[in-house]
Write a structure and sequence with these properties.
By secondary structure, the protein is of the alpha+beta class. It is 34% helix and 23% strand. The protein has 4 helices and 5 strands, in the order H-H-E-E-H-E-H-E-E. A 5-stranded mixed sheet has the order 2-1-3-4-5, with helices on both faces. A hairpin with a 5-residue loop joins strand 1 and strand 2. The termini are far apart.
Length: 145
């Protein structure tokens, strides 16, 4: 599946399937916005259905995650009150290999969602070469006594 062949009932489907998530990020984070280092959020309802995309463009590659944290701290309280979730994509000019900066942004989204009680459905990198999910956070290793 690709974004130009999304199912007709995509608005009724929960965005829990990684292939559908990647297609949605591909759709809302266009090539020009990827080149400009944009970020995209798909705000979802309590059933994980996409209800509102939010796109911010022209973010320098060197930008710290503080801007993302500020954006999420503005949006997520309302999403959390409704029991919603969010899907996040970060645009870059090239390379789908995650960098330390990408990991910083991913962790920022994880932390913000945790603070506001919002489910993070996924965090994706989007470049002209494609869209790839960031690895899921590792579960804490149990301590041995």
């Amino acid at each position: 599946m690709s974004y130009d062949s999304l199912p007709d009932d995509v608005r009724d489907r929960p965005l829990t399937d990684p292939a559908l998530q990647a297609d949605v990020i591909d759709l809302i984070l266009g090539l020009e916005t990827r080149h400009g280092g944009g970020v995209a959020l798909m705000v979802c309802d309590q059933h994980d259905r996409g209800v509102q995309p939010v796109v911010v463009s022209d973010i320098p590659d060197t930008a710290r995650a503080t801007g993302l944290r500020e954006l999420l701290d503005l949006l997520l309280p309302a999403v959390g009150e409704e029991g919603g979730s969010v899907l996040v994509g970060r645009g870059r000019r090239r390379s789908l290999v995650p960098t330390d900066r990408d990991r910083e942004w991913h962790q920022c989204a994880i932390d913000a969602c945790g603070r506001h009680g919002v489910r993070l459905l996924g965090f994706y990198l989007a470049t002209p070469q494609g869209v790839e999910a960031m690895p899921e956070p590792l579960a804490p290793t149990p301590r041995r006594g």
